[in-house]
Amino acid sequence: MLAVLVLLALAGCGGGPAPQAWAADVCDALGPWRDEIDTLTSGTQQQMTAKTTPAQAKENLVRLLGGAETASEKARVSVERAGVPDVDQGAPVASGFVGSLAAVRDAYGKAKRTIEGLDTGPAFYDEVGAAVETLNKEYDASALDTSKLDSPELVRAFDEVPECR
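The chain above was modelled as a monomer; its predicted structure follows.
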């Protein structure tokens, strides 16, 4: 009996939250994260064009990237707490969401550490530009391809749940 329960849990069947509840929890976690990332992205762009010293820009960028790293980890933990939806292939779907947020968190952390290590000399802004370009590539690579959701129940839940609109 225990082996059957383990297999069901690994397959994402039985015992997990219903698709609508899981989608609502995921969207509740991702909404504030998206807002925070948008705010931090705007702040980063402003820093790149502001008339500040390289030392001031470095301090501000490190703070902004650290905030994005923290926000991404908070969202990852919240999505992980949502559990595995009670649908076929629920475990890989849940794992994909959590893994994507972990990769985003790591990309922000790497960019933060890169900028922390930069000298504020004449090449500072060029090096920041390269760090941001790397961040953008890693961010794009971490994106979860939701078109590959094989669960009609989850697709319907994400379309119908008010938290996801």
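The CA atoms of residues 96 and 115 lie 29 Å apart.
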